[in-house]
Specification:
single chain, alpha/beta, Rossmann fold
């Protein structure tokens, strides 16, 4: 299967060099040198990976990453930037970038990062059947999607509508890391005028209900500096 990769880079020499090596990997690179063009492509077409420069004409890479992460469809993002400060790296990761390379970078390292991200896509695609399942099971935790019923062992867990929706979002995508802003968009709706602490409070209540030790959770895990994810495990 040929992987489509959107390369967003306004330095045409760098973009063409990356394109050359991606083609050698058997990928199908698509180049964009302008942020507005890249945003249109990224939100209207399917890509297996985005290689995304931060400093771009029209629309910067951080905004493109933010818009891509607001979508239900998961597309891994590898950010490139000439900046090297810690704050830029943190901002990129908080928005939802999967990996980060600072210019100048070696092509060998770039290709290694690309291969690692594509392996992650393959692993996630193997779990697609989870999203269609009527009952999700992780250890003692069972989620009946149609009945909107959650049990932990023999106990029925009483969840509010939003707590159930939040748990279901996590459980259907184990291992996927979500920022608070993404969860706010996905569970409460894009453009919701609430605050990100809404997500924190709901996760705290969820943990108090489904975790044996909510101070050391085994289902909903914190990814420090980024957000949260549901633990990867065997789906029963």
């Amino acid at each position: 299967m040929t992987r489509r990769i959107l390369v967003v880079e306004d330095d045409r020499d760098i973009a063409q060099l990356v394109e050359l090596h991606l083609r050698d990997m058997g990928c199908e690179p698509v180049l964009a040198h302008d942020g507005a063009v890249a945003l249109e492509l990224a939100t209207s077409e399917h890509f297996d990976l985005l290689i995304l420069d931060i400093m771009l004409p029209s629309v910067d890479g951080l905004e493109i990453a933010r818009r891509v992460r607001a979508s239900e469809r998961y597309t891994p993002v590898l950010m490139l930037t000439a900046r090297s400060s810690e704050i830029d790296r943190i901002i990129g990761l908080e928005i939802g970038a999967d990996d980060y390379l600072t210019k100048p970078f070696s092509i060998r390292e770039l290709i290694a990062r690309v291969k690692a991200l594509l392996r992650r896509v393959d692993a996630l695609s193997k779990r697609e059947n989870v999203a269609d399942a009527k009952v999700l099971a992780y250890g003692d935790l069972r989620i009946d999607v149609d009945k909107r019923k959650v049990t932990l062992g023999r106990d029925v867990i009483d969840l509010t509508a939003k707590e159930f929706d939040l748990l279901l979002q996590f459980a259907r995508h184990p291992g996927r890391v979500y920022t608070r802003a993404q969860l706010l968009d996905l569970v409460w709706g894009y453009g919701h005028d609430g605050y990100e602490h809404t997500v924190n409070s709901h996760i705290n209540r969820l943990r108090s209900k489904i975790e044996k030790d909510h101070a050391q959770p085994s289902f909903i895990l914190t990814v420090w500096g980024v957000g949260y994810k549901f633990a990867e495990g065997v789906h029963a």
